[in-house]
Fold NAD(P)H-dependent FMN reductase.
Amino acid sequence: MTLRLHIIICSTRPGRVGPSVARWFHEFAVQHGKFEAVLIDLEEFNLPIYDEPEHPVRQHYQHEHTKKWAASVSSADAYVFVTPEYNFGAPPSLLNALNYVYKEWNYKPAALVSYGGISGGMRAALVEKLTLTTLKVMPMVEAVAIQNVSAHLDDIENFVPNEHHISSGTSLLNELHKWAVALKTMRQ
């Protein structure tokens, strides 16, 4: 059974380091081999502040950007959110994207690769898990937290993981795969 994993870059601001971290994790997930890993950048969807006239649970989407986003979310069996921490919370771009659709998220697992300063984005990850559960997404305990992310960038802004990031990433992907297999049966 091939399972599709979306690795979602959650920050859309200029100068963000999320794409560098996400590229590393995407390559890492491909090498892990248990998922068909796809890199998704929220910036490319260019979602305005939620603008659908009907509640997302009805799935009567009016706008092309919503239909495109719904199709992307629906096509995944699991998610990894690569997320920074903004003021102890999630980036607004992620919260907006989560709110755009509902049923497309249901009964799928998700994990977090968070980054930031000394906390490694862990406060944002905790807040994001609360929102994920209301979408019937199962958040994993296993995570990758990258403290002082700028110290892990090389001269050309590529993320360079350490052993802790690699071992955490392996645990995250192993657990995410178990849940993705189990939850797929709930969606059939």
About this structure: The beta strands are 4-9, 36-41, 78-84, 108-115, 137-146. The mean pLDDT is 96. The chain is about 40% helix and 20% strand.
